[in-house]
UniProtKB/TrEMBL annotation:
Binds 1 Fe(2+) ion. The active site is at residue 132. Keywords: Hydrolase, Iron, Metal-binding, Protein biosynthesis. Its EC number is 3.5.1.88. The keyword Iron applies. This is Peptide deformylase. The gene is def. Fe cation binds at residues 89, 131, 135. It is an enzyme of class 3 (hydrolase). It comes from Geodermatophilus nigrescens. Pfam families: Pep_deformylase. Its cofactor is Fe(2+).
Amino acid sequence: MSVTPIRLLGDPVLHRPAAPVVDFDAELRGLVADLTETMHAAGGAGLAAPQIGVGLRVFTWYVDGEVGHLVNPSVDLVGDETEEAPEGCLSIPGYRFDCRRHLHVVATGWNQHGDPVRVEGSHLLARAVQHEVDHLDGVVFVDRLDPEARTAALAALAEAEWQGMQAWVPRVEVSPH
């Protein structure tokens, strides 16, 4: 397991659809471990493989104390209820913009061992699942903003201190005990 650099907005890998996972092997288990450790070090609610430069359909989440991952996920949006709320992204550090998402989802896929997984989520978990699956489809959440909000967001991001960088590495806090 290792903390891996997180790619920043502008990196082409963030705008390419990820490939399905074919082999449920030690390499995949290592990827899930790296995603989980990196997500925790960065303080995120989720992290998708393309965000660490790996073009595979895998993501992890940490919401309400629950850690999980999905391989080759598909998402069903449940009902018509949506919510616009501030959303952030580890590939856009330090910024949050209001983004409309469905309030309820059902996601299916597999775990790192190839066992089927079904996740039902509402509110923050539903938002995290939609956000991470977007990454797997080559979509960054600012792409989902209405045109006026997207223009304003991109103008703000043009001034970001990380502009021109390709990635950032979350710091791991080491306890003295």
